[in-house]
Specification:
Layout: H1 6-16, E1 26-31, E2 53-58, H2 66-80, H3 101-108, H4 110-123
Antiparallel strand pairs: 1-2
Helix pairs in contact: 1-2, 3-4
Length: about 140
């Protein structure tokens, strides 16, 4: 998230507060910065550097009851969209998110993705290491 303002707090409370009917198991907004904002030893390798906040929402349900939880997760994402950034933290993505090469490129940004794809081409041309959010050898 790019910011946390009074309007952000109002939207968050409307979506998750006591009277919201929120079925999610966990919803949070974390303030980042500090070590999470320092450039890693490989410059520009982490696209989420510089984001001041991140939000995480988790819903748990049996398969037969999962649709309303998925719908609420989507409603939460839509409700928080005015403060969202195109960048994301990989650890917070579901297995279904960023599952195509185009989505992965958008997640990392074109420059970061091209660099990762080049490393993958050099070190893993057969794409053996491809679980979850795969960067294909470029």
């Amino acid at each position: 998230m790019r910011e946390f303002s009074a309007a952000t707090a109002e939207a968050f409370t409307a979506l998750t507060g006591a009277d919201s009917g929120c079925p999610l198991s966990l919803v949070e907004i974390r303030a980042l910065g500090g070590a999470l904002d320092r450039e890693p030893s490989v410059p520009n390798s982490v696209p989420s550097r510089g984001l001041p906040f991140v939000t995480l929402a988790i819903g748990v349900a049996e398969a037969a009851e999962a649709a309303p939880v998925r719908d609420y997760l989507a409603a939460y994402a839509e409700g928080m969209a005015p403060w969202a950034d195109r960048r994301n933290i990989m650890n917070f993505l579901s297995a279904q998110a960023a599952s195509t090469p185009t989505e992965m490129r958008a997640l990392f940004g074109a420059e970061h993705h091209a660099r990762l794809a080049a490393v993958k081409r050099r070190l893993d041309p057969a794409n053996v290491f491809r679980l979850n959010h795969n960067v294909e050898p470029g």
